[in-house]
Amino acid sequence: MNTPITARAHTNIALIKYWGKKNAELIIPTTSSLSLTLDQFYTDTTVVFDEQLTHDELSLNDTLITDNTLTKTTAFLDLVRQMAGIDTFARINSINHVPTAAGLASSASGFAALAAASSKAAGLDLDRQALSRLARRGSGSASRSIFGGFAEWVAGEDDFTSYAHPIQENVTMDIQMLTVVLDGSQKKIGSRQGMQHAIATSPFYNTWVAESAVDLVAMKQAIANNDFQTLGELAEHNALQMHSLNFTAKPAFTYFNGYTLSILNLVQDLRRQGIQAYATMDAGPNVKIISQSDATQVICAAIKNNFPNAGIEVAKPGPGISYL
Fold first, then answer.
1. To bridge 139 with a disulfide, which of 9, 10, 107, 245 should be the other Cys (CB 3.0-4.6 Å)?
2. Separation CA 246–CA 260 (nearest Å)
3. How confident is the model at residue 104 (pLDDT cuts 50, 70, 90)?
4. Which parts of the sequence belong to the Diphosphomevalonate decarboxylase-like N-terminal domain (predicted)?
């Protein structure tokens, strides 16, 4: 107590998606998912419990936060305080090295770093499975950011059985993720709202659950076999299936825009030219391109030729949670 603890967590991109909860309060998903943690995007969070504080204080990128983000953070810290048997308020300072406009969810790295720093600052010594369970209570995808490389979030049935575990932390496959930013605007429908609307109204949701389970088994086999092409094909197919749920919801909605479709067409054109490039998208309009290192220049050139103003970030497999 009263000792500041700093943790770093990297964001991740799901190759087999999570879209929908069977328990919204505990954030228990309807399907298991699998992700790749990325080296370029991370959050550093420092937490200290201070008996002189009368409420939790949150600073994000050197700006004092008083909105709903603080409310969510306090609710999360209440879980930590309950586990540690304390009632002391905390000071949290978080620095995000995640470009929010890129459609890279900073909540994954943010809550993973907060889980690690706050639990240790409160005197807890949690193993990584317990940290993953705790991080999940802040953001589902944060459960996977406890681990580096490829990680699977097992859906489970309750708080104790829903957690992530590593599939391959020291990635042997030549794989990278290019994030293409063409639209930096705020998405109109938040992820939580979107996924719950899809689960409630899309007639194809149960089909998605069954197909996703098949995709997950095949994805783990592709990783074990070091089979990049199968991994890419599965990731693109799974992402498009997820987004098809939104098109078939009532009323229908989509995170796609014209840029999204243009990049998807460009990726298909690249494949027709013999370049292994595959697309994946989360809840936003911007596309991530899964590729290998020898294709970086040709993919970036194709993007810039068609979209001169596009922002491109290249990320490789990244590490799990660490303390600074």
1. 107
2. 15
3. low
4. 9-164
